[in-house]
Amino acid sequence: MTAMLTDWSGLADLFETHDYTVDAVVELIGEQAHRAMGRNATVAAVRALGDRTDPLATLTRLWPLQRVVDRDALERALPGLVDPLVADGILTAVDHQILAAVDIRPYASDDGASGWVVSDLSPGLDTVTAPMRPDFVLGVSSASATLTQLTVRTPVRRALDLGTGCGVQSLHLSRHADEVMATDLNPRALELAELTARLNGVTIDLRLGSLYEPVGEETFDLIVSNPPYVMSPPGDEAERLTYREGNSAADGLVEQVVTGGAARLNPGGVLQVLGNWAHVRGQDWRDRIGGWVAGTGCDVHVVQREVLDPYEYIELWLADAGLAGSPLYPARYAAWCDYFEALEIEAVGMGWLVLRRTDRAVPHLVLEDWPHPLEQPIAPALEAELVAVDLLAGLDDRAVLARTWTLAPDVVEETQGTPGLADPQHLVYRQQRGFRRAVQLDTAMAGVLGACDGELRLDQIVASVARLLDVDPATLAAQAVTRVRDLARDGLLLAADPAR
Ligand SMILES: C[S@@+](CC[C@H](N)C(=O)[O-])C[C@H]1O[C@@H](n2cnc3c(N)ncnc32)[C@H](O)[C@@H]1O
After folding, report:
1. Among candidates 345, 341, 339, 344, which has minimal Cα distance to 235?
2. Fold held by 395-495
3. Closest listed residue to residue 491, CA positions, set 434, 415, 425
4. Which residues face 179 on adjacent strands?
5. For residue 345, how far is the Cα from the chain centroid?
6. What is the reported pTM?
7. How is the chain split into domains, by residue range?
């Protein structure tokens, strides 16, 4: 894959003509067969295509299904492009039959980004597992989607996609950033990311090198990274799977992505990183990550979505490498156990980090376990949190009391209690959107928050509730301020117009 004989914009035009899109492919093969493809099973889709040889069926058979297609059928779909694609190493020709050497598949996403993504062929179709080449370039994965869904999509001037792989994050960034830079350690990844960019008619400044090396001291308004976070034991460098593991000990690579990124943010700039982190004997994971972000001048929200024990973790990633069923499996498993024991890693946290450079004297820090289902995309909730944190940082307690607040429209009240009793024993306000958080309230706080309709000021509400329940107004005011700050940050309460 070195020559560039293919006319990529011509190829994109033909894809448009044949409606080679996610929706059209789903319609062609049916929802169930499409879901089976999501589980790496292709037989249902192949059966759905039958003996159709129209262009959309031919493209679907060639790329997403990785089947041989007849040259004449492909010539009808891509006139004049088959030979250049073969010469460029994108396709392989054997006699009159053509096979894909590289994957090109339609892409669509919640935020409207759509087009085609070029990557290596999906491994493990129909349970055929085989070890992967070390410079394998992964296509769009569930981790890619997690990052696209949490990336804040405010328009920015400069964005960086660190470890671009197939270029999917850059495809999204190019919709809301004036300039997009993308880096990767793997030259093959940059080649494929360039093809993704060409096919989609976007300009990306692609740079080869490790971590922030190719970036130097340049700074950005938004940095996103789905880095090679897998904590695997050091082994033969030639066998390291670049798409998923670095050569740092434990979670050292994620730490470098975070600290290096924080140092390259413009004021107000945002860094969003997926990661795995070590739970080391005797250390709280929050302290570990707290150490990475201390002194960066950034507000920080870290969400630990899942924790795996060492064996669950090892099994997950050995299977991902195509080693399930291989004779190498037991020895690799044992070496990984030795590695974790030597580093005293008792578990592995998986999740994401959001940093924003605010240079506050006291940064806003939230490091939380949140394994519950979220609304996706979660980015709007994160963006609202950044705005709320700024607002709250500018309000002292008196100002919080002097404002009007209103419950967010997605908050519902749930009560639980013994039938027949006048008062519920449990009262919960639950968000229907975003993080879908729930907070338990006592009668006084429920009285205060329930009256937050954007008309009365918080101090007026506190005074009436204190009078009604015969409680100390100063104590209730202090409790209300703390609660309002938390709920406003989490999006359950909204600041009403300050002029009211
Ligand atoms: C998990 S893939 C992510 C690909 C893509 N950004 C996505 O979201 O799907 C990680 C990428 O980081 C690249 N990578 C590995 N080590 C790196 C390093 N030290 N510096 C920069 N990129 C690296 C890999 O080649 C791979 O393309």
Report:
1. 339
2. Arc Repressor Mutant, subunit A (1.10.10)
3. 434
4. 158
5. 25
6. 0.95
7. 8-101, 125-375, 395-495
pLDDT-derived band of residue 1, with 50, 70 and 90 as boundaries? low
The residue whose CA is least distant from atom 4 of ligand 1 is 165
Task: Name the residue of 133, 186, 211, 212 whose CB sits within 8 Å of the most ligand 1 atoms, as the mutation to test its pocket.
Answer: 186
Instruction: State the residue for tokens 């053509």.
Output: 98
- Run of H or E residues at 337: helix 329-342
Helix (H, G, I), strand (E, B) or coil at 4: coil
In the chain, the percentage of residues whose pLDDT exceeds 70 is: 98
* Distance between Cα 255 and ligand 1 center (Å): 15
| Token pair listed for 481 | 């301020």
**Pocket-forming residues, ligand 1, beta carbon under 6 Å:** 138, 141, 144, 147, 163-165, 168-169, 183-186, 189, 210-211, 226-228, 242-244, 246
Query: In this structure, which amino acid lies at residue 310?
Result: P
Rounded to an integer, what distance in angstroms lies between the CA atom of residue 276 and that of residue 230? 7
- Tell me: the pLDDT tens digits for 110-153? 888 899 999 999 988 988 877 778 899 999 999 999 999 999 99
Say if 125-375 and 395-495 have the same CATH topology: no
Q: In DSSP terms, which residues pair with 272 in a beta bridge?
A: 224, 354
Helices (H), 395-438: 397-402
Which residue has the least CA distance to atom 11 on ligand 1?
A: 163
Q: Which superfamily does CATH assign the domain made up of 125-375 to?
A: Vaccinia Virus protein VP39 (3.40.50.150)
Neighbouring residues of 482: CB distance < 8 A, sequence distance ≥ 6: none
From ligand 1's centre to the CA of 194, what distance in Å? 15
Q: What is the pLDDT of residue 497?
A: 65
Nearest CA to ligand 1 atom 13: 163
Could you tell me how many helices (H) and strands (E) the chain has, helices first? Answer: 19, 19
Q: Compute the distance between CA of residue 291 and CA of residue 343 in angstroms, rounded to an integer.
A: 18
The beta strand positions in 49-111, using DSSP E, are 69-70, 91-94, 97-100, 103-108
Separation of 143 CA from ligand 1 center, angstroms?
12
| CA dist., res. 372 & res. 351, Å (int) | 12
Residue 461, token pair as written in the block: 């509400």
Task: Quote the Cα angle for 365-367-370, to 5°.
Answer: 140
Query: Which atom of ligand 1 approaches the CA of 244 most closely?
Result: 1
Query: Is the pLDDT score of 499 beyond 50?
Result: no
Structure-token pair, residue 464: 């009436």
Residue 22 to residues 74, 128, 196, Cα–Cα distance (Å): 19, 25, 16
